[in-house]
Write a structure and sequence with these properties.
Layout (H helix, E strand, L loop, with lengths): L2 E4 L3 E4 L2 E4 L2 E4 L3 E11 L1 H31 L3 H16 L1 H18 L2 E9 L2 E8 L2 H17 L8 E3 L2 E3 L6
Antiparallel strand pairs: 1-2, 2-3, 3-4, 5-6, 6-7, 8-9
InterPro entries: DUF6232
Keywords: Membrane, Transmembrane, Transmembrane helix
Pfam families: DUF6232
Length: 171
């Protein structure tokens, strides 16, 4: 038996797909497809907040320099305002790395609910529903590989968004 994917709630092997304790033998699955849900506004708002957090200190630094020039104060006051503004702008560096990491993870997880469906014993069954796009892709590809390795040449079994497609042959 070959294990294609394994985490605490999903296991894909050369014989079956197990999701949350429920087992679906590959021999009983005749088709596989996926569906994408609508975008999550909560995720998009979170990305916008991260973008604003990245831009905020830089905008404050530019406004501080502009304010220093506009006030026409003594050279000492102008230099102090510009110096503080530049320090605020430079303070973004360490924070930016942290924020960019969160932004990158946000895109890896995705902004939609993704569902994996299969025709099992002649009936459509939702195998998995998750908002984590990276994990979903790994699981979906694992099920595809498991199905491709166990089928006869020329058999149709794997579809995308509801359509049946012939599996790709490997070189």
């Amino acid at each position: 038996m070959i294990t294609y994917y394994d985490d605490r709630s999903v296991q894909v092997t050369s014989t079956a797909v197990r999701v949350d304790g429920r087992t679906y033998p590959l021999a009983e699955i005749s088709m596989l497809w996926h569906r994408r849900g609508s975008r999550s506004w909560r995720v998009l708002a979170g990305r916008g907040a991260i973008g604003a957090a990245l831009a905020g200190p830089l905008v404050a630094a530019v406004l501080g320099v502009g304010l220093a020039v506009w006030l026409h104060r003594s050279l000492t006051v102008t230099v102090a305002i510009v110096g503080v503004s530049v320090l605020v702008g430079l303070g973004v560096g360490p924070l930016a790395d942290f924020l960019f990491e969160h932004l990158d993870r946000s895109y890896a997880r995705g902004s939609r609910q993704l569902e994996m469906w299969a025709r099992w014993r002649g009936q459509p069954v939702r195998l998995l529903r998750t908002g984590d796009a990276l994990r979903f892709g790994q699981i979906y590809r694992a099920v595809q590989r498991a199905m491709e390795s166990g089928q006869a040449p020329g058999q149709n079994s794997i579809g995308s968004s509801g359509s049946i497609a012939k599996p790709r042959s490997r070189p």
